[in-house]
Each structure stands twice: as structure tokens, then as C-alpha cells.
């Protein structure tokens, strides 16, 4: 069988890391696309020269023309600009919406059968716009945020409890903003829900509250440290997990920004929820039962996403 073809739209910090990981894991041949000449070519040649050391047989190519992504099975979109200290994700909207238009049209023309994973911020609004600009079916266009936010949550819980990250399952839902919703009651360490961990003395309620707060601000914490941009290792690994679930039909349950059609009482927008990702793209949305407090937090987060969608419509009236 021919190797899968993975197109990475945007060859910056996340795009380059995606290419590195995809090649190292032998996920498929990699096409790196960017508007800047030389960067995708240089990064792909550098990684290709590492394949004899990895021992993986994949081809890598850098391109500046959308014709180069023709026939891609997966497109991962990081094109646009990242945050700098003092900026919110929402500050990126004006620039990145224009980028999504160009990217969506490029995918529509050259890779209409691809499974598309958007990473560009502000995530929930950009993936919603990208789906419309590309015209691809909703089940084939998703956003990466929840896997990353949940990984941060899991890491902080592992650090606090002294339990392996492998035995911690944690979930963040809602929009990818600082009002995201870490699902404390549905997250577990060794099968025990977090409130039970507090009962058993693994951590205090104050420590758990601190972890929830740190998870919400996890992106900003890295931006403040790096000063020149935002996180890229964990975001790239998160998108690779989503692409792998699709390409290998693993049907993993991953928190992703997906198009809702009535689940969680919402429709017509993209927001973070757990979803089964397999060969059919988004195969099913998992609905967590929510109590009043969780419903209120989710509603606040969704309101932020709706506000960004309205701002996008103001800039690009073709969006519905
Ligand atoms: P960066 O290293 O600046 O890479 C972006 C790349 O996009 C650059 O190489 C640009 O040349 C390229 N680019 C700009 N315009 C276009 C265009 N029209 N077509 C093709 N390429 C273009 O940024 P990064 O890789 O660090 O981050 C990329 C995006 O991911 C940003 O919007 C970040 O805010 C976002 N991000 C999202 C998360 C989530 O969890 C959702 C996490 C971290 C970063």
C-alpha cells in the first residue's frame, strides 16, 4: 500500500516539529508548505537527512505552491501568527482569518479528500472558518486544542500525585481560551475521580484548584517564558495523536474542537468536546453529563467562541 501523505500548512515552530515527529514515527511522506521561500525546503531537507539515523523510510519535501499538497490524506494547519507576551489568542483573529481563507481555498483545490486538523489560533473560530473556506465535510475538519489542554492538566496532576501520566485521564472541554472547562469530576487518577483523590489525601482542594487554574493559563505560561512565540512541542505531539488515530483507524476518544449538531445543546459551531476519531474522521461525539456548575462554565466558554465567530463575520461576510 502507498504511504500516507501528510501536508503541513505552515512550516514554523509547530510545522517543523510536526514534520520531525511524523518522519520519526514513519507516519507517511511529509509535504511542508509555507509562503516563505526556503524555510519549508530547508526544514524538510534537514529532517530528510536525519531519516537514515532514525531508520525510517519516508520522503519529505518543502513547497511554496498549493499544487504540492495534491492528494494529501491529512493536512495539519499552523499557518498564521502566534502570540507574543501581552497578547491574547483573540488578538490574532484579524491576521489569521485571512490566512485561513487562503489555506481553505488551497485545500479545497488540491486536497479535498484530506482529514484537516487546524491548530491556528484563536482555534475554535479559525477551524469553523477554515471548514467554510475549504467546503470539506464537517466530520473531516477538526481543531486541536483539547488534547494539549488535557495533556497539560494530566502532567500537572502527575507531578502533584506522583502517579504515572499514563494512568491519568483528564478532560478539558469548551473553547480554547482561558475560560476552558477542566472536567474535574470526569478526570481520573488510577480510575479515581479527582474529588475522591482529595478525600484520600493525594492533594488538597486548594492544590487541585491551583492545577485547574494553571491548566487554563497553560498556554500563557509558556508564552511568558519563551517571549518570542508560543508552545510547539506539546501542540505538535497532540496533533500527531489525532492524525494517527485517523490514519490507523484507532478510534481513540480525544478532546477536539468539532462541529456540533445538537450535542451539549449546541449546533452550528465548533467547540471542544470528546470525540471518537477514526477512518471516518469524527465518528461520534461523547457527551459527558454536566451539573449546573459545569453547564455554567461551558456556557461562558461557548459565549467567548460565539463572540469570536461574530467578529469573523464582521471581517468576512461570506461566513455563516
Ligand atoms: P510560527 O512559528 O510563526 O509559524 C507560523 C508559520 O505560518 C510561519 O512559518 C509563517 O511563514 C506561516 N504563514 C503565515 N502566513 C501563511 C500563509 N498565508 N500560508 C502559509 N503559511 C503561512 O507559529 P507557530 O508554529 O508557533 O504557531 C502556529 C499557530 O498555532 C499560531 O496561530 C499559534 O497561536 C497556534 N497555536 C495553537 C495552539 C493550540 O493549542 C490551538 C497551541 C500553540 C500554538
From TrEMBL:
EC number(s) on file: 1.1.1.37
UniProt GO BP: lactate metabolic process; tricarboxylic acid cycle
Keywords: NAD, Oxidoreductase, Tricarboxylic acid cycle
Keyword Transferase among record annotations: no
Limits of the Lactate/malate dehydrogenase C-terminal domain: 148-310
Listed Pfam families: Ldh_1_C (PF02866), Ldh_1_N (PF00056)
Catalytic activity reported: (S)-malate + NAD(+) = oxaloacetate + NADH + H(+)
InterPro entries assigned to the protein according to its UniProt record, in alphabetical order: L-lactate/malate_DH, Lactate/malate_DH_C, Lactate/malate_DH_N, Lactate_DH/Glyco_Ohase_4_C, Malate_DH_type3, NAD(P)-bd_dom_sf
This protein's name: Malate dehydrogenase
Any GO MF annotation of the entry: L-malate dehydrogenase (NAD+) activity
Protein family: Belongs to the LDH/MDH superfamily. MDH type 3 family.
Ranges of residues in domain Lactate/malate dehydrogenase N-terminal: 5-143
Keyword field contains Oxidoreductase: yes
CDD domains in the record: LDH-like_MDH
Active site: 176
Residue numbers binding substrate: 83, 89, 121, 152
Stated role: Catalyzes the reversible oxidation of malate to oxaloacetate.
UniProt binding sites for NAD(+): 10-15, 34, 96, 119-121
